[in-house]
Amino acid sequence: EIVLTQSPATLSLSPGERATLSCRASQNIRNYLAWYQQKPGQAPRLLIYHTSNRATGIPARFSGGGSGRDFTLTISSLEPEDFAVYYCQQRSDWPSFTFGPGTRVDL
Amino acid sequence: QVQLQESGPGLIKPSQTLSLTCTVSGGSISNGAFYWSWIRQHPVKGLEWIGYIYYSGDTYYNPSLKSRVAISVDTSKNQFSLRLTSVTAADTAVYFCAYGSPYYFDFWGPGTLVTVSS
Q: Is it the case that residue A93 has pLDDT exceeding 80?
């Protein structure tokens, strides 16, 4: 099973600041990586798929990058509604999917 | 946009079978565009993909749960369902249904908490 590790566990920032979240895979997952945002009491929401493609309706301040084993999610300028938990997810060893443990972006 | 809603018992006893249904509205489960998934979120273990089904009935399961899981689809009711047998406290989680491509989960239902306790 491919294991995803996310860092940092918690990121403490202020509105307007830039957030950079990391996701590392235990083996090469090519570009088969997605990012989700989850707010308390809500379901996860797809932000980015296939490493760098924004999902429908996702603002341009969210961007994804990377390849192979190392990936990043960048929020260029944090808005108040962006404080949440972010998960990465891989599907390289289809049909098995795994998620990372999450990064909490806090005020 | 296609909406999802999970339903089923919130409390079941150990060794029983967990049964949940996801009702799809705003679109047809039979249009062939999506795969229909079950995913759960443990308080400590995090997010875990359980399996998914295509409208044709083709199913794919997480190998770690495969011996206990069955996902089925009822196109006439626009629903798909999850059965998980021989539950233990470790199966206590929020269960989500979701749809998407074969690779990612585009949209999720709000989730339903299932507690396994005697």
A: no
